Amino acid sequence: MPDHSPGPPLSFPESSLLDLKYPYLVAGDFNIHNSATDPSRPLSSKEGRDSAPYFDRAADLGFTLLNTPGIYTRFPFIGTHRSSAIDLALTNPHIFPAIRSWDTSSLPSTGSDHTPILISIRPPSPYKARPRPRWQEAAWSGLTDKLKNGLVLPPRRSHPQPTRPGILLSPLRTYDNNRSHRTPLTPLPKIQSLVDPTLTSHRQDFTKAARRTKKLRTPDTYTIARESKLGYFKAIKRAKASYWADFLAKPSPSNIWTAKQLVAPRKTPRFPSLSDASNPVTINKALLDHFFPPKSPLPSRGRLTKNPSATPLTKEEIKLTLSKSSPSSGPGPDGIPYAVWTRVNLINPAIFLEHLFPW
User: Fold this and answer.
1) What residue numbers bound the domain in which 324 lies?
2) C-alpha distances in angstroms, 134 versus 217, 323, 332, 336, 351?
3) What is the pLDDT of residues 254-284, one digit of tens each?
4) Which of 51, 165, 170, 229 is deepest in the core (most CB within 10 A)?
């Protein structure tokens, strides 16, 4: 409980940092429950007394809670305990405008009962987007004459590559979905399950008791749930012991070999020793170099050359292709939307035929 957490004066101090208007972020496992973070949780009077001093002091100093109400930060391994929100993050007014997000679903699970929390903070300087041309404000009346007489210079070829005939028209290789080419799966051996008619009733009693405990939360329901859980686990142990005795009572070559493998001690997993790697940094580098070796950079691409077997393009084909493209769709890698290409083609189609697509 809060005895294991720092008190409100230590968590939210009235120090010179706050007086000088410095950004201040308080985050950690407070181990308290409050309706501000978990509105659906029925709080007891003790839980209210434990969490009230923290939230009252944070409110007096102008702190803001970043937690999303109802988002849990702790998922216990015990079935009788419920999930809760005990990890809090609060900011003073000088850093709250710089907080971009508070997220608990972006990072993978760490195996602990606490989920990792990602808090994104904006840089100190205001964010500036990359400059982009505003095509919707283009003055087409003044650009018409320039586009009619305009010429597009061909790109410079830095690394010419040999041309292979017919590479542009080579058919795509399709995947043969015939079942005859698939490797047949080996059927798994039939596994005999634990046959005990009392397991179902024990499991039903344990499930009902656990649900009733979560709903009522009284000492009697906790006692009944604990006894139902112990009875269910004992029934599982008895069923396993009965199954193992029946398994050994029917000796056969396969049963004897399986029993020997089950009772034999398992070898302790060992991490392979790496040469010239004595600390975690060198081991990490050796593993990365082995499994992810650095790749040599790919050669620069040259310009596509004309395919001798391809028919030349016409103005009608270009116009038909552009008419099927939505003017409101996102631009391609060049950053120019289709509305601009359509307008340029209407003014001077020779730009496409002679310079952009010379074949």
Assistant:
1) 315-356
2) 63, 22, 15, 10, 22
3) 777 777 777 777 666 566 677 777 788 888 8
4) 51
Asked if residue 16 belongs to a domain, the reply is yes
Contact 274, 228 (CB under 8 A): no
- Pair 106, 38 in one domain: yes
d(Cα 245, Cα 252) in Å, to the nearest integer?
14
Query: Which of 44-53, 134-143, 183-192, 321-330: highest mean pLDDT?
Result: 44-53
Amino acid at 277: A
Same domain? For 241 and 340 the reply is: no
Interval 123-147 mean pLDDT: 73
Q: Residue 70 is part of a domain; what is its CATH number?
A: 3.60.10.10
Residues 252 and 352 in one domain: no
pTM: 0.36
Q: Could you report the per-residue pLDDT of 224-254, keeping only the tens digit for each?
A: 999 999 999 998 888 888 888 887 787 777 7
pLDDT of 268: 62
The tally of domains found in the chain comes to: 3
Residue 95 to residue 25: CA distance in whole angstroms: 7
